[in-house]
Each structure stands twice: as structure tokens, then as C-alpha cells.
Amino acid sequence: MACRKLLVSRSGYYEWARRAPSARQVADQALSGMITRIHYESRGTYGAPRVHAELRLGFGVRVGR
């Protein structure tokens, strides 16, 4: 029923659902973990500018704010 509403085949849906996460999804998940850790270790005081600076200067990760 949902496949019909979304105009996709059942086999296409199940192929998509079983697909392994992409490299981008894995990288985003790792980055999210780093951001959470930085925020936690700052006792919740760091906002986006400080988290961004910590990622850039502390870990050498280049990301957009």
C-alpha cells in the first residue's frame, strides 16, 4: 500500500532498506559523536562557535559551522 502511494516497487523499497550505510552517513555519524563529546566535556557550555573551533583546532576536522 505505501509503495503504491510513494510510486516505488516493493523490491526497490526492500533493496533500499537493506542497503549498507553510505560513506557519507558513516562520516556524519562519527562527526555527530565528536560534537556530542565536545559539548558534554564542556559541561554543556560550548555552543556552535566553540564546538567548531574545537573541531578545527583540536581535531583538525574541517567542517562548516
Write the layout of secondary structure elements.
Elements lengths: L1 H5 L3 H9 L4 H19 L6 H11 L7
Give the structure's gist in a few sentences.
The protein starts with a helix and ends in a 7-residue tail after the last helix. The chain is mainly α and 65 residues long. The protein is elongated, with a radius of gyration of 18 Å.
What would the keywords be for this entry?
65 residues; mainly alpha; 4 helices; elongated
Structure description:
The chain is an all-alpha fold and 65 residues long. Helices cover 68% and strands 0% of the residues. The longest helix is centred in the middle third of the chain and has 19 residues. 0% of the residues are buried.
Question: What class do helices, strands and sheet pairing give?
Answer: mainly alpha
Mean pLDDT: 93
> What letter string, H or E per element, gives the SSE order?
HHHH
Oligomeric category: single chain
Question: How many beta strands in the DSSP annotation?
Answer: 0
Low-confidence stretches: none
* Secondary structure: helix percent: 55-70%
Task: Tell me the number of helical segments per DSSP (H or I, 4 or more residues long).
Answer: 4
Give Rg in angstroms. Answer: 18 Å
Basic shape: elongated
Instruction: Report strand %.
Output: under 5%
The termini sit apart by 41 Å
The biggest beta sheet is recorded as: none
